[in-house]
Amino acid sequence: MVQTTRIVLAARPSGMPTEENFRTETVELDGPGAGEALLETRYLSLDPYMRGRMSDAPSYAPPVQIGQTMVGATVSRVLESNDDAVKPGDVVLGYGGWQSHSVEKVRHLRRLDPAVAPVTTALGVLGMPGFTAYSGLLTIGRPRPGETLVVAAATGPVGSAVGQLGKIKGARTVGIAGGPKKVALLKDRFGFDVALDHRAEDFAEQLADATPDGIDVYFENVGGAVFDAVLPRLNPFARIPVCGLIAGYNATEPPPGPDRLGLLMSTILRKSLTVRGFIQTEFVADQYPDFLSEMGGWVHDGRVRYLEDIVEGLDHAVEAFQGLLTGKNLGKLIVKVAD
C-alpha cells in the first residue's frame, strides 16, 4: 500500500475558484493491477481547461466529480509496473492529476527520454499545449507566406508556439498579451513582429495601426474585448481557430452591453469567415506523430522557443491555478511535486 497526497474538488466554484473549492487529503492507493503501473508524480501541468472541468455545465469532457482528484497531465517516475512496456525508474507522461502518486494504465502512458528534451516539455511545447498550437494553426488557420496572423494570449504555451509556427510558415505575426513584461517577451523571446498590450486604453487603435492590411488568421485564446477589437480588422476569407475563451471562464452572468451576436453573424456572412472551435484530441490519431517529429526538430534547432513557469510544491497548486486564470504566469505553468 502506498499513500498519495491529493487535491480534490470540494465544491463547484461560482466565479473565480477559491481555497474552499479544494480539499487536500491523504489516502492509500491499491497496488497496480494487471497492465498498470504505480507512479510517483514529479511535475504537474496546470492549464486553463481545468476551470471548465470544475463546472458541471455541458462541455466536451465530463466534469470532475465532487471528492474526485483534480485532473491534469503529469510527468512521473515509475515505482512499480505490471506491464513490460515500462519498468521501475522510467519517466513517463501520464494523467495522474493533482496528487503525489497514482496508479495508471500503462497503455495510456508515454515514455520520455530526458536525453532528447527536458521532461517538462512533455507538459508544454512538446505536449498538449504545443500540439494544440500545431493542430489548430496548421489545420484550421492555414497561414500562408505574407499573411497577417494575430495571436491572443501570445506568451502562453499555446499562443507562443502559434506565433513561432506562423513565422516558420512565412506569416507576419502580431502578438497580444497583458502588461509590459509579457509584451517584451513577445518580441525578445518569441520573435513576434509586433507586440501589443491589450490593457492599453488605445488597444483597438494600436491593433488597427499594426494590421494595415487587415488580419488573415486570428488564433483565439481569450474572447472578450480582444475579440471585439479584432473583429472589424478581419479580411475576407479570414480563418479563426477558436482554442479558448479565458476572458469568460469565471463569468457568472452574460457580458454587459448590447447584443452583438447579429454583428458577429453578419461579419461572418459578409466576409466569408471560417470560425471553428476545436479540441486538440480531434487531431491526435492523424497528426501526433508528425507533431512530435516536426516540433521536436524545431525546438532542438531553436526555431521554436519556450518558457516555463515552475512552482515548487503541490501545496501551492491552488494559488498557482488562481494566478493562471488571472494571467500572472509567464509561460507554461508547472508544479514541481517531487525531485
Automatic annotation (TrEMBL):
Task: Return the InterPro entries for the record.
Answer: ADH-like_C, ADH_N_2, ER, GroES-like_sf, MDR_fam, NAD(P)-bd_dom_sf
> One MF term from GO for this chain?
oxidoreductase activity, acting on the CH-CH group of donors, NAD or NADP as acceptor
Q: What protein name is recorded for this chain?
A: NADP-dependent oxidoreductase
**Which SMART domains did the record assign?**
PKS_ER
Task: Write out the entry's keywords from A to Z.
Answer: Oxidoreductase
Q: Which domain of life is it from?
A: Bacteria
- Could you confirm whether the keyword Translocase appears in this record? no
Q: Source species, please?
A: Nocardia pulmonis
Domain named Enoyl reductase (ER): which ranges?
15-335
